[in-house]
Amino acid sequence: MDHIAKEAGVSKLTVYNHFGTKANLFTEAIVGKCESHMSPSLFEQMDGENLEEDLFQMGNAFMDIVYSEEAMGIYRIVVQESQHDKKIAQLYHDSALTSVATYLIEYLGKLEKKKNIKFEDKARTAGIFISFFKGRRYLMTLLGLQPRPSREEQDRMCRNSLKLFMKLFDLNE
């Protein structure tokens, strides 16, 4: 909190008055990062008419988040700190993954109504979608063994993941 107050040019008391706790500050930082790439407006404009393009936009936005230096740095810290404090891992999960999954679950609900598609478990389906974009390349990048993919590489990776996802759930139009 001292470092944040110093960087913001305010007192530590001001930071505590605004956020209340370190946990709230951490949560707000994570949610803010997610929403800067995957804002609710991104999902609101998706109507399911072009399913593959909608999913491509979502997948690419998710990849923008997870491959960002900030997100990778936060993830590394969470993994390290969770060895001593499981609460930080839960906060990360609840603020990052749950917020992204919530948007996706809402979109899947729209698809069910509009396209006559039925997902047995939308939360599970959202989790599978998210996992398709955090494969081997993500791990290699996280470990510093490969650079972040270029936009062209990321687009290709996203399209390949989408093909598998759409085939798995029989979504090909």
Q: Can you tell me about this structure?
A:
The protein is 75% helix and 0% strand. Helix 5 (51-66) packs across helix 10 (151-168). The protein has one domain (39-168): Tetracycline Repressor, domain 2 (Orthogonal Bundle), CATH 1.10.357.10. With 173 residues, the protein is mostly helical. It is globular and about 55 Å long.
Number of helices: 10
Distance between the termini: 51 Å
Overall 3D form: globular
Helix content: over 70%
Provide mean pLDDT, rounded: 83
- Judged by helices, strands and strand pairing, the structural class is mainly alpha
- Classified by CATH, the class is Mainly Alpha
Q: Write down the Rg.
A: 18 Å
Order of helices and strands: HHHHHHHHHH
CATH superfamily caption: Tetracycline Repressor, domain 2
Name the CATH architecture: Orthogonal Bundle
Query: What portion of the residues fall into strands of 2 or more residues?
Result: under 5%
Annotated CATH topology: Tetracycline Repressor, domain 2
Number of domains: 1
* DSSP E strands, number: 0
Uncertain regions: pLDDT < 50 for 5+ in a row?
A: none
